[in-house]
Amino acid sequence: MHAAPTRIGRVAPGAAEPGDFVSAPSVRWLFTSRAAGVPWLVVRVLLGLAWLRTGWDKVFGPASAAWMEDGAAVRGFVQRAVVASQTGEHPQVAYGWYVDFLRFVGDHSWFFAKLVAFGEVAIGIGLVLGAFTGIAAFCGVVLNFLFVFGGVAGENPAYLIAGILLVLAWRNAGWYGLDRFLLPAFGTPWQRHHPWARGRVEMP
User: For residue 98, what are the domain limits?
Assistant: First the structure.
């Protein structure tokens, strides 16, 4: 027999529990137990440091002017992606709607360059500290998808997989971090009684 894992982040009775999408004890342990917070801590910190390093270089590094002044880095990315969408029978950028989106980004590169740079720093800090881990990981996943759709592979697929797993482990990935205190304080938006309605996530 498998002992029932100690679960964290219980919600109010009758509320939906997104963590219950699996029933296998080992998977349930991985995504809901406190003990699994230890390996998630390693994944979270490593991924967070990677995001923090890349974002920090954009904001303060030698190439920061291309990100923080005129957005030249984003314009260059957009131009390469647009060219890639028109090259060969199987272009790297295959979606017309995404090319249109990139052109919009290129026209406002001064804004999106800063958004990406500071966003990466914020994602890194959130993951390292374990503060709103699920939200930080989700934002990282969105950026990874945008880069991959733009024809840039590199480390993005690995970051993407790690980010998706952290999103699924939102309950316990930040247990050894600030989420131990933030999740009970703020609750979750799909609860029947969220904090703005005087509800809380119950922690055993």
Answer: 35-174
